[in-house]
Amino acid sequence: MARRTSLPVTFVVPTIAILLVLSMVPTLYAIVIALQNRELSTPDYSWVWLSNFSDLFLDRRFLNAVWVSVKWEIVTVVATMVVAIGLGVLMFEVASPRLRNAYCLLFIIPVLLPRVSAAFVWKFAYHPLYGIATYPYRLITGGLIFDPLSKPATALFAVASVDVWQWGLFFAVIVLKLLETLPPQPIEAARLDHAKRWQIHAYVTLPMLKAPLISLMFVKMIESLRSFDLIYVMTRGGPGVATETLDMYAFSQGFIESGKVSYASAMAVLMMIATVITFTMLWKRVQA
Amino acid sequence: MKPGRLIGRIVLAFAGFMAVFPLLWTALNALKNNVDIITRVPRLVFTPTWANIGYILGRDSVLTGLYNSVVACGSAVLIGVVLGLPAAYAVARYPNRWAGDIQFFVLSLRFLPPVAVAIPLMVIWLQVGLYDTLPALIITYSLLTISVIMWLAIPAFQGVPKEIEEAAFVDGYGAYSVFWRIALPVAARSLAGAVAFSFVLVWNEFLIALMLSSSNAKTLPIVASELSQQGMNVPWGILNASVVLLSLPPLLFLGVLSGFLNSIFRQKKS
Questions:
Q1: What was the ipTM of the complex prediction?
Q2: Distance, in angstroms, between A46 CA and closest chain B CA?
């Protein structure tokens, strides 16, 4: 449609200009703040250049937060993909079309919930004395207490389970839809060769879906970085620093504990650089 | 039936149960008195009470939060529609050498950690005197809604058969009226899904609202999270009621969004 019209310019230029301003101003300003020593309590500040960054690498709590964030990414992304592929294949294999539709509707519900709601729902469920999720344990053990959110060893997994509950079930719907779009001939051919059902999926269907599944994983990696709300409501980074991710630590440094806005901003800038570089590289590879 | 199939069905049924049961339980708890919630053995039979829901709906802070959420999310989505849909159409239908870059730029906005945006914006809004106001929230959320709507609307517009638009051009329509009278109505169902998705996203947003508001502009998620910090005597029923209230608006879009998913994957098939 190579027509001469002003439409592309009038439609694209204002929007992109606004997006550029809205995204570049805070981004650049974040860098500026990170190079100063601003605090919420006082209006004075001076330039300290890179000392916030060098402080960070001596800060053991920061290094812990990096480690927790990495663990969080790995646990949530892997578990989400496993749940999604498992349930997606199951729906494809054993559910009739009507049942599939019903399951799809059910599985979309958790992801629509605000993370704050999801976090509260499960915080109640994990309550050691009155929670519905800990009830089976109390029942079997005759009233012993199981408190997953207050033990350092289990807290991260307990919070991650909520994330997987929201995203794994939703992605299962997408995996099912992807399976439904596949041409039936290769599956029929494999069946004629007496392949077992799991073999058909492991060697035929899932490899055919490699590209969309990788994109899906990519989306989850980005979304996993936005888990602040879950952690904030469920554990506040605790017990101790067991669930303190980078954004949780940046938030508590900047606002709750000391109001060191510049220090928090330095952390945010590092996160930004790391994510932009990682995801740009991944994206280019996915597209290639 | 083969045992494998039976086990598969049981696992699926269990997953379906897990998907909704925690939420249903929360809704039940919202109708319980505290004595019926704080029990060692979960209680299914109880005398329901409307007190928790009444308390929630009668509180000024909740109503202000609800109002703020509706205004902030509604305005941001409107801005996203006005700026995002035309831009998406132009990228989809008038490809040039920047189209790929524009798409990547729009997606890359999603990589930005929310803290990295919220900290400088807080300082900026403080300096220009807009901190803790709805306009500041609306402008910040617009970044989110414009980029999400664009991202989802580009494939939706690409799914409109080119022939229809060509025919309209032959009939003497201009480029703008083709957009208005052909592309928009034909893609309407997918576009509605994109818009609903962006609404759910900003309605559920927490971190930015937490950092950009202190009293006046608090949105509903913030108010709900604060209810949990009321002293030692946790008002369980009230908390459950506030969770239900907060969750209802996004759930209203369940139908639209599942239709949206279906339409996306149907396009891919053809």
A1: 0.88
A2: 15
